[in-house]
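Format notes (please read before filing issues)

Several people have asked whether sequences and structure tokens are stored in separate files. They are not. Every record keeps both together, in the order shown below: the sequence lines, then the token lines. Line labels are part of the format and must not be stripped during preprocessing.
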Amino acid sequence: MIGGRRCSEAARRLRRRPDTLELSVLGGQPMETELQEDNERTPTTGAGNVNEPGVEASEASCSAPSKRTRWFQFGRSSKNRRKRLHCDEDEDVEQPDRRNSDLEGSRRACLAQPEGMNIGSSTQTIVTPLMIGDSFYSLAPGGGNPPPNKSDDQELYKQRDPSVASESKSVPSLRRLSQIRRRRSSYYFSENERRIRANDKEFNAQFKYHNNYIKTSKYSLFTFLPFNLLEQFQRLANFYFLCLLVLQLIPAISSLTPVTTAIPLIGVLTLTAVKDAYDDIQRHISDSQVNNRKSKTLRNGKLVEAKWSEVQVGDVIRLDNNQFVAADTLLLSTSEPNGLCFIETAELDGETNLKAKQCLTETIELGDRHDLLWNFNGEIICERPNNLLNKFDGTLIWRGQRFALDNEKILLRGCVLRNTQWCYGVVVFAGVDTKLMQNSGKTQFKSTGVDRLLNFIIIGIVLFLVSICALFAIGCAIWEGLIGQHFQLYLPWEHIIPKDYIPTGATVIGLLVFFSYAIVLNTVVPISLYVSVEVIRFVQSFLINWDEEMYYPTTNTYAKARTTTLNEELGQIQYIFSDKTGTLTQNIMTFNKCSINGRSYGDVIDLRTGELVEITEALQSVDFSANPHHESDFRWYDRTLLDAVRSDEEHSHVFFRLLALCHTVMAETVDGKLEYQAQSPDEAALVSAARNFGFVFRTRTPNSITIEVMGQTEEYELLNILDFNNVRKRMSVILRRGDSMVLYCKGADNVIYDRLHGGQEDLKARTLDHLNKFAGEGLRTLALAERRLTEQYYNDWRSRQQEAALSMDSREQKLNAIYEEIESEMQLVGVTAIEDKLQDGVPKSIANLQNAGIKIWVLTGDKQETAINIGYSCQLLTDELADVFIVDGNSVEEVEKQLRQFKESIRIYNRFRPGGFDPFDRLNSDSNMDPLSVTMTQTSAFMQETNLPPTPPPPPAISVVTFRWDEKNKDNKGGPDSAECNDLFGDEKGSEDGGTASIVVDENTGFALVVNGHSLVHCLSPELENKFLDIASQCKTVICCRVTPLQKALVVELIKRAKNAVTLAIGDGANDVSMIKAAHIGVGISGQEGLQAVLSSDYSIAQFRYLERLLLVHGRWSYYRMCKFLRYFFYKNFAFTLCHCWYSFFCGFSAQTVFDPMFISVYNLFYTSLPVLALGVFEQDVSDKNSLEFPRLYTPGLKSELFNIREFIYSVLHGAFTSLVLFLIPYGVYKDGVSANGFIVSDHMTLGAVVATILIVDNTAQISLYTSYWTVVNHVTIWGSLVWYFVLDYFYNYVIGGPYVGSLTQAMKDLTFWVTMLITVMTLVAPVLAYKFYLLDVHPSLSDKIRQKSLKKIHSRASSDVRRTASSRRGRRSVRSGYAFAHQEGFGRLITSGKIMHKLPQDFAFPLGLGTKKTQVLHNNLNSADGPNSKSNNVTGQHMVNNNTNMRQNQNQNHSSMADITADGRANGGDDGRGSGGSDDMSPRAPCQDLDTINL
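Then the structure lines:
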């Protein structure tokens, strides 16, 4: 068109306009020409004369090459191109022939066909290259001929194929244009993706990816001083004193030397800076250790050692066995035949079980050949760095093909390579971009609640100071205007004061006096306060470090306070967030007990008394040395089981043979010793137990398992592995030996019980007793069962199983149905009980912490069953809980429904909880019995909706409510049992016959909440956040399982924000770093998972049990001492400073001080500093033993009762009253006073000296009353400071020659001074003593009661009103399942496919399901050896049971096992044998009944 362009019309045809790709397909304007235009041309608006498109193209093609030469940068100016194409659309339509002719001789680029792909949360586009001869357009031009000059990527567009140019007008080009219009690509310039080319530093460098250097420190050498000072001056007090120092530098308004403020301020800043520098140096050392680790990196075709910090994105690195992964890496090849490798992710999620990773089959061929690996030029397009540990989306473009990448092909930084000799990978994310660092969180500046309160108080004090100064300034201006102007001869005005106009001069004087009073009264909050606070915290930190009670001799580790600013916060913790693995547990699984054929093993009985013997380290274990494959660290104490095995007892052989065969463990020989690599620690413990009892798992292939039974080798053909998953909760193996087949199964007890054949009621009942007993002891239980199969039945089932496996519709459901069919009619073999060993003292510590009012949440990456089991083991969960809520919904709607149901359950529970006093009417009011216990049993009601799947009934709810009549209850001020106990249970009281009736709810009652990780995502969403908090705050315990490190931090942040609660996070691994940094207090445990948690923590301990002492003793003492210190400090400073205010009414508001300026300067430094420091360091109301014995002493810190606004106001009023008495009584005595010798004593200096002396004496008396715990240091500092005052006053006035020389000496010679001092001090002390005695007699605190009992030397246990109500859990058996199995789905498939094996397929004994001659020979040999000793399937008789189990008869019980195979290969037995003694209507597990009953 000629003239103006109709851009508006072109805009309306936006969707029809051709973009850059379309123009290229149609033979449009070259891309490099557009790049040139983007640099030279700016878009214009409105009409204008513009060159023709063809002319523009020709001019651009003749111009100099653009500086922006990279091909990918055309995307940065795509917006400009689109705008121009808007306006040029008409020309593109009118002149298509001209465009085609201009480019007819040029070579066109081979474009990529875009295809949609999800990357992250947005839809991106990936490409499938189109082949043209031997070359193709690729981001990594390894498959074709590379351009001559790699530095100029525009050459890629100039190398166009003339064979394709002629097709620009063809139908295929138009078809491609249509495809591009339908599927637009933002691929090349998307901001939501990451592009990496292997072994190409130049390509990767342009994206400026982070290197692998890690920095957790806060400062450098150059930034330390400014950043640290900026951080310190964020404290309002430091900024306040800085402003005060500036004012003191002005002579006209300063009545005090600036040294009095400068020296303490510099001291505080220096002390804090040294502490911060030390902490940061430790972080630098840690960073240096990590960054200087060695990694083998491929450089120029050779493998060289490089530091971790030198590893770059795109580098190919080698990892060896047991080596940490340096960065997030795409797996290329491994030492395993099928590209598998095994990793341990303890640093990421706390789990030590192995996880399998597998590389692409196309890259396996690279192996460890460095030439092939160096020539690997694949290009990776993936998501941007994020914190999702279990998700990775990407694509590999290599050799003209694209391959999907997922999380199974990625090795994350922090993992450890296990059971794999070597592997190679290309670095995808490095340094701070790695998922580990993305989850680590940022280091936050932490301050205590006392600090925050002090900042608020200082604001109030400053406002009060300004008000007082303004009032006195106005008073001074009025006085000078009315009276002072007449005394200028004696009190001359300063030369800067205008004398011509009196009101103006008086106003200026008042303004100057305002600042003078601001300086004089600044001692209300002296800088010495912060010096003293820092000193007290510093010494308290050393007391923590030196505590021998928190020393762990096993690792020679002391507790360590890594920060000195948070000590008193330890006494105010309301929520504890704890990791599980390595924190609560030792991460060690041991085979503890078992039940075989209804007989329990594992308990040790004293033959003399018949009582159970407690198993300790001192007890001698069974000797397994006769077994050449035994493990020296295996411990078992019940000899009866070993005797049963050695005597060829049939059922014990079946039991251990099942354990040795039904698993996915891999065996390998290392240095001549057989070692196991298990996917879960549970399986490792079970296989290890079978090994020590003589059933040794030796090796496996995809279709065979070899074990050694009592020295004899047995080889079984592995037909199928029915793998474990969270829905099935069981795993099975189908084995063949000879002509007989058997199915072995292990899983959750309730799942196995539902699949047993009839007639085992007696066996099931006895085994169920043992199950409940094991679960009650906190053991992890698995039930074992077997089923004998016939060849015909198996073949029929196998054909249907293969048909279901190949089904394209509902495959999972069909397979589950097939598995259900064969896993039925099984025979119960026994039960295993594994102990996930808790750290020593964990249950007791948790019980005391909960009794102190602290809520404990467990945040773990483990499975739900494992987390629940540990909850019971450490008594976070008990059988007395009213209900355990489990949130496991997969959508927002499901989670919301579950939360609504749980809230309704709590409402019903609270409604029917005995809150009234109806039961009292039935009780005898004349009864003088001890407190009556009333037990209420009730189950929570679950509201079901008809359109949703049914929810299984909850466990029975049991709560214990105790009613007490006691006169002592009215004086009990112990505090609530939990942080929100009053909100949940209220405070219901009633009286009868003059007595007080109180309801004391047993702490074991209430609710617990278990949340899965995928459900927690929805719970933390804004729409469900409040509902989740509402329920969680009413629960005694919350357990979050399968959570990521970032989710842990989000939960902590949620509680901090929504509940405004003080939080503590404790963990031992790198996966806990984020929540440790997020919490107010971070505690690291020096565990087996490294020191990452310790290095990020504020305090470090060696065992979880030391947390009890850290909080209940040191935390409580620190808070108690700091609060007492602050109350006394504000009291003494207001008493000292406000004397100037009262004197102002007698000196014309002239800012004249009462005291000697030197006394003002050293009052807080020399006269009163040491006694208050001793108080803050050594004070304690009760001993450490009593602090642990009575955890509810901790309760006042939860509610900040010891220091708050109310206590501060009380201290201020007390100080104001003291200052008023201190000034008025001496002023009244010495006004117009004359000594006995006729000397006048009514001078200013005498009054100042007398008031100062009485002030020091009063301070000494007051701090003596404040001190509860006297040490030598307290005596020396308190009485020494009083003596020091007189010594220093004499030295200053007589030696140095102070202005007040002789004033105090002359006053002390007169009896008036002593009488005045006595009257004043008694007036000040008497009210304090009276109030203390009143509180002690009428409202004693818990510490007062304990102190009184200690003085009376009564060491009996405290009454139940201050002690934890004893749990009845140990006195009754558990009715819950103890099932917990840390196993994951997938290993069975890897085994049967052969991908997990070291051997090649031709080495396998059973080639893919077919029996071999080798098997038959082995089988015949075994049968010939057994021959006459073969056992019949039907066994009748009496069986011995353990000493702690009643003698029962079990006749005609059917037990089938692989040992039952006869010499001719035929198996005997049937299902007609049934157990006797059982009831037909007996249920294996009692159903939960919705009964509301109260048993009185």
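For reference, the curators noted about this record: The radius of gyration is 41 Å. The chain has a mean pLDDT of 74.
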